[in-house]
Amino acid sequence: MADVKKTKSSMASKPLNLAWQQFKSRLTPWLERQRLMSFMRTMAWTVPLTVLIWIYAEHEQLGMDRMVAIPIDVRIEAPNRLVTLISPADKNILADLSGPRANLERVKNQLNPADSGGRLVLTIPPDQAPGSEPQFNTLDRLNNQPLFRYNGITITNCNPPFLKLRVDQMVEYDVAVQAPADLANLEAPPLFSPRTVKVRGPKGELGDPSRLFVLADITNLEILRTPGEHKLSDVRLIPPLRGEQVTVSPPTVSATVRVRRADVSLVLPSVPIFVAAPLGVLDKYRVNISGGSFIPNVTVIGPQEQIDRLEKQSVLPRAILEITDKDAGEERSRPVRFELPAGVKASAQDATRNVEFRLQDRSLPE
């Protein structure tokens, strides 16, 4: 009887087992998908967070670089004033930098003039008087710079420890425009328009305004080789001092120049020698000149009209031999000085020609 009941119970549980197995077979893949999706969701925020933590740790890794060159410049926030850096003369500070390694590299790149194209500008308080030469602590000035503060960079051990400055007043003067002194082929000084220009710069550098002038850059103009009157425009002006703080306004002028005809040469058959001596010397001594009292074949160079006067003997040239009583006794050799019309000169070879002479006491027989 018991066996019959067991058999009936077993037969009744078979459908349940079969249903459970079917449900389990369907549930397992679903659970696997849920676990996979949960894992993926976890990884979606875990991986980026891990990368960010790693980047932050790398970024915040501290380091130190010694004797880093910091190119600087200075300025003062005050009207009509200029501050100049005296020391360091090369405008470079050497300092130890410490902070996050990544920031250190970024700051060093910005301090490289080749990359940034400029220098670190230090602003000086505006209460500095013109003519003063203040000094400022280098370390304090640098550590207050936003470039270092915002990047968490600390600066130590600066060289030089102090910045030496000069404060000057910016002034503006009316200065005359002049032609270069080496323009020898002009009939008269050029006429400039305007005749004066404004020069602006540091008062201490410009000095006495009465001694200032601005040069017109016309020395090498090809047109100055052609005789006659010429109108020039946009002639560049050269400031009285070099420097980015010295400016000229306007930077160019117009000019009127008159170029004389080219020099010509003439060979003078002879030029008489005149003796110049202190009072009484010629009363005591005779002057015996070797070769006579004329210098033969002297080449002179000058303007055509003056050469024409010499050729027509409208004006007579002279060769001046200067002597003193110290020349007495021995035979001497000395160059003469030619007296010629304005603009005329002896050739380079004749200008150095020597004359041999001897002073003889008049009380002695010749």
Describe the structure using short key phrases:
366 residues, alpha+beta, nine-stranded mixed beta sheet, 40% strand
The SSE string, one letter per element, is HEEEHHEEHHEEEEHEEEEEHEEHEEEEHE
By secondary-structure content and strand pairing, the structural class works out as: alpha+beta
Oligomer: single chain
Query: Tell me, what's the shape?
Result: elongated
User: What is the tally of helical segments?
Assistant: 9
Mean pLDDT: 84
Poorly predicted ranges (pLDDT <50, ≥5 residues)? none
What portion of residues belong to β-strands? 35-45%
What is the β-strand count? 21
What integer value in Å does the Rg equal? 48 Å
Helical fraction: 25-40%
> In this structure, how is the largest beta sheet organized?
9 strands, mixed
Report the span from N to C terminus: 189 Å
Can you characterise this structure?
The protein has 366 residues and is α+β, with helices and mostly antiparallel strands. It has nine helices and 21 strands. The chain has helices at 2-59, 101-110, 113-116, 138-143, 146-149, 203-206, 281-284, 304-311, 348-351; strands at residues 62-76, 81-87, 92-100, 120-124, 135-137, 154-159, 162-178, 191-193, 196-202, 213-216, 228-238, 247-249, 252-259, 264-276, 285-289, 294-302, 318-322, 332-335, 337-339, 345-346, 354-361. Strands 2, 5, 7, 8, 9, 10, 11, 12 and 13 form a nine-stranded mixed sheet that branches. Strands 19-17-14-16-20 form a five-stranded mixed sheet. Strands 4-1-3-6 form a four-stranded mixed sheet. The longest helix has 58 residues, at 2-59. It is elongated, with a radius of gyration of 48 Å. The termini are far apart.
